[in-house]
Amino acid sequence: MPRLTSLWNLANPTRFLGLADRLLPWLAALAAVLLAVGLYLSFFVAPPDYQQGETVRIMFVHVPAAWLGLFMYVMMSASALGTLVWRHPLADVAQKAAAPIGAAFTFVCLVTGSLWGKPMWGTWWVWDARLTSVLVLFLMYLGIIALWRAVDDPARAARAVAVLTLVGVVNIPIIKFSVDWWSTLHQPAAVFRIDGPTIHPSMLWPLLVMAVAFTVLAIALHLAGMRNEILRRRVRSLRLMEAEQLDAGVEPAAGAAR
Amino acid sequence: MTRAFLALVLRDLRLAARVGGSGAMGLVFFLMLVAVVPFALGPDLNLLSRIGPALLWFSAVLATLIGLDRLFQTDVEDGAIDLILASDTPLEVLVAAKGVAHWLTTGLPLALCAPLFGLLLALTPQAMLAVAATLLVGTPALTFIGAVGAALTASLGRGGLLLAILVMPLMVPTLIFGVSAANAATAATVGFLTPFLVLVALSLVAIVIGTFAAAAALRQGA
Predict the structure, then answer these.
(1) Which residues does chain B have within 8 Å of residue A185's beta carbon, measured at their own beta carbons?
(2) Membrane-crossing residues (chain B) (predicted)?
(3) Cβ neighbours of residue B86 under 8 Å, at least 6 residues apart?
(4) pTM for the predicted model, two decimal places
(5) Residues in chain A closer than 8 A to B169 (CB atoms)
(6) What is the ipTM of this complex?
(7) What is the Cα–Cα distance from A100 to A194, expressed in whole angstroms?
């Protein structure tokens, strides 16, 4: 299995850091270019909506943010499997780095949705099914981050969070289903009126570019977050070693840092 | 396996009944919530009877959380968790036993007393029965979802608030179907049976997922 062995090669943090350092400038530049193109397309090229006017441009940020909020959770669940099943050290790091990024995208989605809702529906917040499920997703991100911050030992924290993430991923479809059911029960008149079944190509293209731009941005941020987390853990283990040596009064041993 | 299961259930029930146990605490807290809310909302009986089922359900969620943070924590503190982990009986069975014992001391009394508390909220007999029935089949879901959070925070020593943050989003579906089934019995917007059966399904799923996930969390944490 060549793919698996190459994944195991990356278990060596130094090798991963080398790869990350090589990839990161390219990914960051690509994300910047794509974002610039996407923003130009969505602000200057895409036509205003015939009903919603200029506010429809919020969609070009809102929709990709929503998509990435979910994408990062999937990323986190895959890493959680890596942590629990293979005990891959990189999976711990990937899990931890993904949580704040996913939470941030979900938050951007909620804020832009709220800003869009004010002119369109006349209110900042509606207990609509989609809004509510995104809000619950955001709360779950906050819970995961809180658990990360509650356990001192990173390896133990990673396994605890992995269990929680996987329980969450089983529950997300259930929550989505029940919130949909709840919202149709409470609000028979749907608030969400997407005009027409399809989006016109003149709006679809900027949206796709923005989606790709956000994805590349998320991957770049994730990679940078993982790199920082590895460095942070090195600092932590160096400090622990130093403290132990001070404690025992022994001469420092060279290069055993994780 | 059955003997170990029953032994652990009996032990937890005894511990809950004795000094220092949280036996009746959940029930008292439940009564407290139901009694305090009218002070905030005003004594309008029409309003109270309309939101009564939702209020009872929300109070049940909060009351379930009360005992949960101690579910595994006491065992971690006195070392009983090591015996549980080292036992021949599968950990999942023992976790289920602890969940059952917790439900018997919180969920079941809540469901049985709900009609009584419904009097305070001017519920109709039909609504009282519906709330009691939904709490009876719905509270196992709350207990076993909460057991996951309890297992995750067992060794932290200060898990109370964290536990609530972790498990409350996961309790949303139970709350939705519990309240809508309880409401369906009075206001006929939707049939009673559909949300009730979904609630039963949620409980069964939560028992399975909660047992296995809590056992996994305890193994990882040890």
Answers:
(1) 180, 189-190
(2) 21-41, 47-68, 100-123, 129-154, 161-184, 196-218
(3) none
(4) 0.85
(5) 136, 139-140, 143, 175
(6) 0.84
(7) 30
